[in-house]
Amino acid sequence: MKTIGMIGGMSWESSKMYYQYANEYVKENLGGSHSCKCVLVSVDFAEIERYTFAGQWNKIGEMMATCTRQLEAAGADIIILCTNTIHLVSDYIESSTQLPFLHIAAATGQSIRSRELQKVGLIGTKFTMEKDFYTTILTKDFGLDVIVPGADDREIIHDIIYQELVKGKFTGSARNKCTKIIEKLAAQGAEGIIMGCTELPILIPEKHLNIHAIDTTKVHIQKALDWAIS
């Protein structure tokens, strides 16, 4: 088994799910007492948040490059970034290592294609919903039709993520607000919903929805492990 290198802490609420899903998937596939071989570098999310809202993406990129080099030195065989939004600076990671890097949008696109879906809704931070670093991979590499909520609904989801979810606050009120937005996307023809923030599947498990939900945390780590245990 190869060793997964994880850049985490964005936020740690979802990073712990990466570790849980990783070990569950290895156990499911290899049985016995097998567990995931991995190394983790975790950042202080307050620093990431400060640079994010200041628009200093280069600072975040430099931090991600440093984390990547630390993982490589620790023996990682593949790098994954345990967040959706910060893939905006994934080029810093790829340029800092010769190791394979699995982009979360690529893993997501493969999962959607395996479900034979064509039109999907995307929810996450405003950065993920409004910038093209994520949707371009889904549309150009996988030929998907991607729709996002309207401006007011994007603001609602964005605020819930940064004011509640990354701080470990998961409430019924927030779940209801997000579910209503998802229902609007379904009414516009979305066949599935991309949970494009790694905290969103914690807030809204698929059982609460009447539509396919793509848990980006789960599909990301599972695709990395498919490579690691093949």
Radius of gyration: 17 Å
Helix and strand sequence: EHEHHEHHEHHEHHEHEH
CATH level 1 class label of the largest domain? Alpha Beta
Q: Please report the total strand number as a whole number.
A: 7
Strand content: 5-15%
| Portion in helices | 40-55%
CATH topology of the largest domain: Rossmann fold
Shape: globular
Distance between the termini: 8 Å
What is the number of domains?
A: 2
Strand order within the widest beta sheet: 5-4-6-7
In the CATH hierarchy, what is the architecture of the largest domain at level 2?
3-Layer(aba) Sandwich
Structural class based on helices, strands and sheet pairing? alpha/beta
Residue-averaged pLDDT: 97
How would a crystallographer describe the biggest sheet?
Answer: 4 strands, parallel
Q: Runs with pLDDT <50, length 5+?
A: none
Total count of helical runs of at least 4 residues: 11
Report on this model:
53% of the residues lie in helices and 14% in strands. It folds into 2 domains: 4-103 and 219-228, Rossmann fold (3-Layer(aba) Sandwich), CATH 3.40.50.1860; 105-215, Rossmann fold (3-Layer(aba) Sandwich), CATH 3.40.50. The protein is of the alpha/beta class. The strands form 2 sheets. A 4-stranded parallel beta sheet has the order 5-4-6-7, with helices on both faces. A 3-stranded parallel beta sheet has the order 2-1-3, sandwiched between helices.
